[in-house]
Structure formats: C-alpha cells, structure tokens
Amino acid sequence: MLVHDIIAPAKPTRWALVLHGLGDSKEGWKDVVPMLGLNGWGFIFVQAPDVYGPGWSWFDLQLPNTKPNHAQVERARGLICALIAHLTVTRGIACADLALIGFSQGCLMAMDVALHHDQVFAGVVGISGWISGIENYPAEFGSAARSQRYLMTHGHFDNVIPISRTQPQAAQLKALGLDVGWAEYDKDHGLDPENELADIRRFLLHR
Length: 207
Known about the structure:
This protein is of the alpha/beta class. It has a single domain (4-205), classed as Alpha/Beta hydrolase fold, catalytic domain (Rossmann fold, 3-Layer(aba) Sandwich), CATH 3.40.50.1820. It is built from 5 helices and 9 strands. The chain has helices at residues 33-36, 70-91, 105-116, 163-175, 195-205, and strands spanning 4-7, 14-19, 41-46, 50-52, 55-57, 98-103, 123-127, 149-155, 179-185. A 7-stranded mixed sheet has the order 1-3-2-6-7-8-9, sandwiched between helices. A two-stranded antiparallel ribbon has the order 4-5. The radius of gyration is 15 Å and the shape is globular.
C-alpha cells in the first residue's frame, strides 16, 4: 500500500487525492491546502513508491528527457488504483466524491489513472505535467474516460516540462471527445498562487 496521510474534517463533503512531483514527498503539497480554500474537503497526500534523491518518484525519469518508462507508469497506476479501492472500502470514499490532483510527475499519474479508470471522479487536475502513452488513445481509454472532467494547467516559462510538450497533448485529448479544460499562466515549473489556484478551486467546486 502506498504511504499516505489523511487530513480531513470530521465529516468531509468531498475528498482530493494529491500526487506530488519528482523528488518531492507527501509533505510537499500540504501547505497548499489552506490556499485552495476548499472548506469541508478532506485531503489524501500520497507518497510515490521509489526513492529519488532526498524525495520520491513515480517512475524513472532522466531529465531533460521527459519520455517516461511506460511499464513503471503502469505499475504506479496499479498502486494508486489499489489505494483508491482501499479508501473506498475502509473510508467509504466513492470515486464520485474524490478529485485527483497531481503536479508534474503527479500530473501525469493523475491523468493516467483517470484516463484508464472505469469510474468517474469528482474532477481531475493536472498541473505542470504531461501525458504518458498518448499514442495509445483512444484504444486504451477506460470506460469512464469520456465522462471525466479534466483541467490541465501550465506555465509559459516552464523549463522542466515545456508548455510546447503538453499543450498539443491536451488539444489531442479534447479532439478525442474528452472534457479537457486548459489554462496557461506566466509562471515557471511551480504554482501560480493567485490565478491558477483560483481556477483550480472554481473547477473543483463546479459539479
């Protein structure tokens, strides 16, 4: 089972599963929660399975080459899906009440899980990341892929995952019939604490 922390009010109205980026940990995005202003939500911060320097990784990646190891992406997808199933059984968290939020590598994993899943999530947010195996879609779409709501956000000045890598992928998914929102910001490989967070909050609160 993936290591994870659960932070929630007594009776959460919704949940968010948060997947960190390369070299980070389950601690990395906890400070963002108050900034999101999702009152009443519970958060599950998940730690990637593989050690990477002082942090953790979802799959092998040799930057600046952003081509992921597809077999390891599939393995990580299985681990995340197992955790989601565990949370459904032990916490009663339905996928319909669970949003997926991922940054960078975590963005790739959040999108990958949702694109292959057979249940609809409350929303899928991919921040400053990209898509693995896009050439295999729509053949590999899960039965819920076309019913999901996705929001992908990116920075004009991202020199880790260039926007030119991700923007065409988002457009391709949209052309395949997916409900993919796309937003750009004057930021690097990080988070815009004002405009981007406001857009993410609006997306998650809109059902």
